[in-house]
TrEMBL record:
Residues 1-33 are annotated as: Disordered. This is Beta-eliminating lyase-related protein. Residues 1-13 have a biased composition (Basic and acidic residues). The lineage of its organism: Bacteria, Bacillati, Actinomycetota, Actinomycetes, Kitasatosporales. Its cofactor is pyridoxal 5'-phosphate. Residues 54-307 form the Aromatic amino acid beta-eliminating lyase/threonine aldolase domain. Belongs to the threonine aldolase family. Keywords: Lyase, Pyridoxal phosphate. One of its GO terms (molecular function) is lyase activity. It comes from the Bacteria.
């Protein structure tokens, strides 16, 4: 659908005159994907990362709906920050909550405090848990904690693995959902068994609930009942709720008071945080009630994606999990990741429809995987819309694979 000028511009971006490094090539592709996301007429989700500063600041135009803007600004955690903490504690059914600038800090502080209470710095967790994959060894390097991996299988740990762990641990940390293998949640029965197994080991239970907000449909339970299984819970304000950033740690009031002391020591007691706190309150007001509809529609989108990929005649494809546990899930294709990424961006540039907005990764050569996120814009897509978009994408995928000489499909 793009004209000749569009194709010429795209070609010059794809094929710079001189050699470029791998990082530069990826950077250019990331920028093209971001521009395509901003200009696309149809998307399944729009995240804060894909918007301009002006667009993000516009979020605060409605801030007076959630807090009295004639109140004094916050200073070192009072005012609007304290109001946000009270709101989160109530939603999660906990005695208290503490605001943190990052989840990395919140979880280190939580587990450090629990280690002092249990006398055991060992944290049992999944090999794909966020601290193990994305935090540069922060548990051991910064907080004196020692992670022990329960499993590296692409699923949640089992109660048997908790019971059979070879050494004592002070805390069991469960990431809900477990993002790396596909935003996976256990069943409610499996979750209660996991918690019971930890109790049998005299361990506390901490939920890495960065995206816990999205879990209520799968568990068919309210947030406070889910959070009530754990001794402490961390939640994020930007991953699901579209806030500017920030996190909260919720749990017993004595733990939270100690956590605030450690927050200060870690440099997390920031002078003023009202923009982030207001964006979090807006997220709780606006996005939190919508999340169940996103999860339910993600199941419609996932089924239509699978149908569309099968109808396109690809040799193999996978939507995982087949029935999404949250509003995010994975798509796997038997092509080189660069080839698929280029096809996805071209589709958006030329058709105005962005089906795959996130990066494609290569777990092994010849396979590509991405995450699909369904939010408010995605509610406008019917199953037929998804199947049509898949067919359009596959046309370009085959073109790109042919150019690259690495075509796997027919």
């Amino acid at each position: 659908m793009g004209d000749t000028a569009d194709r010429s511009t795209r070609t010059s971006e794809q094929e710079p005159s001189g050699p470029v490094s791998e990082d530069e090539r990826r950077g250019r592709r990331w920028e093209r994907r971001r521009r395509a996301s901003r200009s696309a007429r149809r998307v399944l989700a729009r995240s804060g990362l894909q918007r301009t500063i002006r667009q993000r600041l516009a979020l605060l135009d409605a801030a007076d709906e959630v807090y009295d803007l004639d109140e004094s600004v916050d200073m070192y955690g009072d005012g609007v920050v304290a109001a946000l903490e009270a709101k989160v504690a109530g939603l999660l059914g906990k005695e208290a909550a503490a605001f943190f600038p990052t989840g990395t800090m919140a979880q280190q502080v939580a587990l450090r405090c629990w280690a002092g209470r249990t006398g055991n710095p060992v944290v049992a967790l999944h090999a794909e848990a966020h601290p193990e994959v994305h935090e540069r060894g922060a548990f051991s390097q910064v907080s004196g904690l020692r992670p022990v991996r329960l499993t590296d299988e692409p699923r949640q740990p089992t109660a048997e693995e908790v019971r059979d762990c070879e050494e004592p641990f002070g805390a069991l940390m469960l990431e809900l959902p477990l993002v790396g293998p596909g935003h996976l949640l256990p069943s409610w029965e499996e979750l209660t068994d996991l918690v019971e197994a930890a109790r049998e080991r005299d361990a506390v239970v901490h939920f890495d609930g960065a995206r816990l907000w999205e879990s209520t449909v799968h568990f068919d339970r309210p947030l406070d009942e889910i959070a009530g299984l754990a001794d402490s819970v961390y939640v994020s304000f930007y991953k699901s709720l579209d806030g500017f950033g920030g996190a909260a740690l919720a749990g017993p009031s004595t733990l939270v008071e100690e956590a605030k002391a450690w927050r200060h020591r870690y440099g997390g007691t920031v002078f003023q945080q009202f923009p982030t706190a207001l964006s979090a309150l807006l997220g709780l007001e606006r996005e939190l009630p919508r999340l169940p509809s996103y999860v339910r529609h993600a199941r419609v989108v996932a089924a239509a994606l699978a149908e569309g990929l099968a109808a396109a005649g690809l040799p193999w494809s996978r939507v995982h999990p087949e029935v999404p546990h949250t509003n995010e899930f994975q798509v796997w294709l038997p092509y080189d990741a660069d080839t698929v990424a280029e096809a996805a961006i071209r589709t958006a540039e030329e058709s105005g429809t962005l089906l795959f907005a996130r990066a494609w990764n290569a777990p092994v050569p010849g396979l590509a995987v991405t995450e699909v996120d369904v939010r408010a814009p995605g509610l406008e897509w019917s199953a037929e819309d998804v199947r049509t978009a898949v067919a359009d994408f596959v046309v370009r995928l085959r073109e790109e694979a042919g150019r690259a000489g690495g075509r796997t499909g027919p």
